[in-house]
Amino acid sequence: MRVPGSDLDLRLVGYFTVVAEHANFSRAAAVLHVAQPSLSRQIQRLEEHLGVRLFDRTPQGSRLTEAGRAFLPQAQALLEAAHQAELTARDGATPREFTIGYVEDLVITDAVRRLRHRHPTARIRTRHLEWNDAHALTDRRVDALVARAPLPFPAGRLRLTELWTEPRVLVVSTDHRLAGKESVTVDDLSEEVLPQCPSAVPQWSDFARLEPRPDGVPARSAPIDYASFEDKLDLVAEERTVLILAAGDRRPQLRPGLTTVPIEGIDPVRVVLATRSAEANPLINDFLDAWSSDKPAPRGR
């Protein structure tokens, strides 16, 4: 049994709508990234299949025939229906809910917008988390987490996919001896004190404090504990400590009396997408595709 319309090639229909839009085979070929002779052959195939001529060639380009004008709205509706059918099938095969966590000042708006456009019927939510929330993924409060690595909590059961990298900077008071320098190295920080974070895993603390150091001398520790990131910035403004952050973290710029100095010769921060290692949610791959289709500038909000 022959299914009506099943022999119609949607790719050729798409070519037809582009030629109709531009009224010129050369311009349409450039838009479609195909050679003009090839495009002409594809349109000829469509005309042979339909049994009608769709375009008349003119000195100015091409013009729709009466049959072409009649076919155009149907062709556009056909392509839109095919697109919606694809979205419906994809959403029917994927979970209807997906929650994306993010921390600090990281911005995920554009990637989330693209994901929602691709899955318009899915319930896609975002959730800002504390930087050291160790259980958001394992407790399934979020399905994915955008964060800076190394993570401050154990990541053995997580899968990390790098999104981009950011160089690191030194955050100091505007009156600090290193303020205004073009850049600094680890050696320049030998006399500086750095805050500790006992709740973070050693890998995170070592990375944040630039340990171990080439000379083997441990970093000096600030004698005062802190309860929040804002507390750390207060200590920096008071010149009681310095801080090392990703260059993309713009929060220090919101505080008067602070400035940043690039640090040379150290590893950058990796911005990653963290997911449960056994997670099979296909929306994760689509979210990664949303990042790769337009990688963000390495900066924060």
UniProtKB/TrEMBL annotation:
<dbReference type="Pfam" id="PF00126">
    <property type="entry name" value="HTH_1"/>
</dbReference>
<dbReference type="InterPro" id="IPR005119">
    <property type="entry name" value="LysR_subst-bd"/>
</dbReference>
<keyword id="KW-0804">Transcription</keyword>
<feature type="domain" description="HTH lysR-type">
    <location>
        <begin position="8"/>
        <end position="65"/>
    </location>
</feature>
<dbReference type="InterPro" id="IPR036388">
    <property type="entry name" value="WH-like_DNA-bd_sf"/>
</dbReference>
<dbReference type="InterPro" id="IPR036390">
    <property type="entry name" value="WH_DNA-bd_sf"/>
</dbReference>
<protein>
    <submittedName>
        <fullName>LysR family transcriptional regulator</fullName>
    </submittedName>
</protein>
<dbReference type="InterPro" id="IPR000847">
    <property type="entry name" value="LysR_HTH_N"/>
</dbReference>
<keyword id="KW-0805">Transcription regulation</keyword>
<comment type="similarity">
    <text>Belongs to the LysR transcriptional regulatory family.</text>
</comment>
<dbReference type="Pfam" id="PF03466">
    <property type="entry name" value="LysR_substrate"/>
</dbReference>
<dbReference type="GO" id="GO:0003677">
    <property type="term" value="F:DNA binding"/>
</dbReference>
<keyword id="KW-0238">DNA-binding</keyword>
